[in-house]
Amino acid sequence: MGEIKETVKSIAEAARQEFRDVGAADALEALRVRYLGRKGVIRELMQQLGSLEAAERPQAGRLINALKEEIVALHESARAALDRKDSVARVQQEVDVTLPGRPMRMGKPHPLTQTTDEIVDIFARMGFSAVYGPEIETVHNNFEALNMPLDHPSRDAFDTFFIKGRDDLVLRSHTSPVQVRAMRAARPPLRIVVPGRTYRPDTVDATHSFMFSQVEGLVVDRDISMADLKFCLNEFALAYFGEGVRTRFRPHYFPFTEPSAEMDVSCIFCDGGGCRVCGSGWIEVLGCGMVHPNVFRAVDIDCEEYTGFAFGMGVERLCMLKHQIHDMRLFFENDVRFLSQF
Amino acid sequence: MKASWNWLTDYVALSAPAMEVAERLTMAGLTVEAVEETADDLILDIEITSNRPDWLSHLGIAREAAALYALTLKVPQVALPEASGDVRQEASLEVTAPELCSLYTGRVIKGIKVADSPAWLKKRIEALGLRAVNNVVDITNYVMFECGQPLHAFDLANIADRSVIVRRARDGEVITLIDGTRHTLMASDLVIADRQAPIALAGVMGGLLSEIGSDTVDVFLESAKFDQYSIRMSAKRLGLSSDASYRFERGVDRETVDWGSRRAAQMILEIAGGTMSEGMLAVGAGSAGHTTLRLRQSHLSRLLGVEVPIEKARSILASLGFVIRGGSPDDTLVEVPSFRGDVMEEADLVEEISRINGYDKVPSRTSMRIDPGRRTPRERLVETVERVLTSAGCYGSVSYSLVSSELFKSLSPWSDREPVYLQDRGGHENVFMRPSLVGSLLAARKTNEDRKVECADLYEIAHIYLGCDDELPDQPLMVAAVMGDGFPDMKGVVERLLGETGVRDVTYERASLPFLDQAKSACIMHNGQMTGYLGLISADLQEKIDLRDQVSVFELRLAGLEEAAHDVAAFAPLKRFPGVERDLALIVPEETTWAQILACIESAGVGLIDEVSFRSVYRGEPIEEGSKSVAFHVVFRSAERTLTGEEADAEQARLVGALREKLGAKLR
Questions:
Q1: Which of B31, B397, B400 has its CB closest to that of A250?
Q2: What share of chain B is helix, strand, coil (3-state, %, to 5)?
Q3: Of the candidates A130, A223, A259, which has its C-beta nearest B376's C-beta?
Q4: What is the pLDDT of residues A292-330, one digit of tens each?
Q5: Pick the CATH number of B292-361 from 2.40.30.10, 3.90.550.10, 3.30.56.10, 1.10.10.60
Q6: Is the interface score ipTM higher than 0.85?
Q7: DSSP single-letter state for residue B69
Q8: Interface of A with B in 6-65 (CB under 8 A)
């Protein structure tokens, strides 16, 4: 009896030491098997019970059971300790996914460039090709060839910068002179868009600038009608402003088109109900019309054989509407806090 | 133009609500911008396009409304009472500048009594935002807003010798106008004068001395048609704009000159009393004949893309005052009324018909043929450049092409000539077109720096403008950028940019541009021409514009590169056999350039060299002063087999031999 007591005691001491020092899950499992397994230490002790005196058996049995319970408890707590250690290690390896990433250096095109590209792209899908022309232009191309002779009252609306020492040159006041160049350069059919900078001596404020951008369009072919004009510009409005938008065409006056119109779109902010931005529920977005016969005559295109339509729009205005920019001057300050928003 | 609803309904019996009429007018081209409600009237604020002077009157707007609602226009009947005494006994008229005044008429009414206008007249005048003056002046204004013909009443007693002379002003002649302002005139101005001095600036404003006052008894009533351009130029130069000049500039109707005169005379006689002298003084024709145009139904349909029956077209034209002179559907003869000087050809008739019929009747449909459109070399080039620069961290900028800072002139290596200046005008003096983009980018960098926006790397793609001898000045398309990085990074950007565009045969040479750091700048050469430059800005320039950082810039001429760009890459087969890689370091004299080393390697005729890439430059111990060590990486490779180390050794020896022989290079 004294012998088995000693044995149990020394096993318990050894087990306490071993379970305390165990450092890994597989070692712990090996310990478990060694003490508690089918051929383990406890089992072996139990088998030795039979060789004891009958009177000693119960006490020895209790000692062995107490040992078994202690080892089970040691195993439990060793496993818990290992689990705790593992999870700290895991957390130390994991990134805090809510931390910001390292900023990537990337710029963007200017919002006016983005708007111009979008407009040109929409028309390109309808078969328009981009054409460019000079910003310093002849008076003839800027005015006379567009049915605006010198004594024409509409020339007031197109107040113009002249080049010093050259009464025949101006900063183009619209992109329309490129129509004239395009029609001289190639015979119909023509289907072009003309993006570019234009200039008028306006005083700079929130809605005016002496430099601004336009996109002009021109289609010339046999039997081009106002229905074609409405189709192309309606499609443009839907593509640019969104599928729900409605358009209306109001008669207007431009010297280089007849009949002429202005296109309004239903207000994109109030859906046509009338608000602070639109007032009436409609927003004016572009001017258009059928090419005036005098414009064809100026470039020797037979206005009996060919008809055409033309349109022009202000890029700043379209960009401001879409992004709710309130002051045109922001475009030309080039503050990166502004540029990075679009 | 402000129009009174009550006044309009004198001429057309509108039963529709005013807001609906305003909408219809807007959709017919008379944009009603606002409808203001007053105590017992509605005032319509209408935007009138410059081609429609006939709409600058209540009768003109009423005619439009009548056409839209198929109603009758009621034009007031004018019947003058018995006159006494010959007008020619009362005044004389002479026009010495008929080129500026194609029709001038004058009537004389004697013995009137100047007083306040009756309440109804005052109300009409004031409803339009005008100040009521006295019965005679108010009547002339009333008739102008009724029919569009400006009228002027002179106090006959203040016309010296009762002689009215329509002439060009004498250079330096001075006149004081009704508003009290004094103006010095030129021969291009037209005046109404008596034998002594001008009494009115024709078509713009009357003179102070001949205005109608409370003591006026006899009146000379002017109704005329003045030259549009001359009135516009005089009004513009003198900074004067009046309701009269506004109408004359756009052109008044020759045939309304007399109607307006009779209408005003009748009202003066009714309201201010007096008697009219028999007849009228007149120089010029009261009518210039009417244009007749041909309208083809086929052309109408072709232009609108929708069938409009010819009967409908004819009735619309008739309702607008055109006279149908018969003809077949494809040959309708249309006589244009004299008040429609803007209608000059068939397309104008098409607009009239379509306007009244409604633009909404034109369908939105097309039979345009399919056309894929074409992307131009310029578009492709610009797109590539933008892609590279935005990837490099630059934001696109847009700056004014008009500049006035002298600094811009010193930042352009593109021309020695004076830049293109604009003609001076108020608020825009000494303005020229920028000859370089870099100045604008540096200014934008500075703006950002001042606003505590760090490291604003920016680019711009735009035109610059050089000298002006030819028909048009050279206006090449350029790209430029400003970045906070040093020379190697900036050069990396430029190389990548040119590499992506596929422009070949680009070399770099030492630059000596005064605004760049001489030690860290280069010219970009293409086909022997300088096509751009890059480098750090000079310390002087940095100080001058007060920039914190010594930034790098580049500017590159895109014009001309479109043709050189090869943006369709040709596939190069992937290398199948492994190469033998060697790192070499050469000790060469300081002045030896990398380009020389490369050229030497190329000309050495070592066939198995596949790649050479620069690694680093080292100066200092143990390399002696005046020399440097240049390290580079070489890959020897065969297209047919795996090279052995021995083969590579032999090639390397040939290479090193050539470098030693030509450049005095020693292997380190």
A1: B31
A2: 35, 25, 40
A3: A130
A4: 999 999 999 999 999 999 999 999 999 999 999 999 999
A5: 3.30.56.10
A6: yes
A7: T
A8: none
